[in-house]
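--- STAGE predict ---
source: upstream dedup step, 1 unique chain passed
mode: sequence only
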Amino acid sequence: MAHIFYFAWVREKIGTPEERLPVPETVQTVEQFLAFLRDKGEPYASVLADPQLRVAVNQQYAHPQDPVTDGDEIALFPPVSGG
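--- STAGE serialize ---
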């Protein structure tokens, strides 16, 4: 199972700071994983439609075509701004 962490407003809108979900065999990339979550319906669909959303896999920033496997740690968060 993937361990998924939600941060900041993503956590607030999803309604939980984390969850564990099995990664379907058909899901092999970050892009496919996000589509899998969107297909769960609301609130995932509206939250994951935001193009500013950032993804990390195993604590490394990830791109849409980067691999995802069952057992990965996946974090979803808004862009970080500093000051």
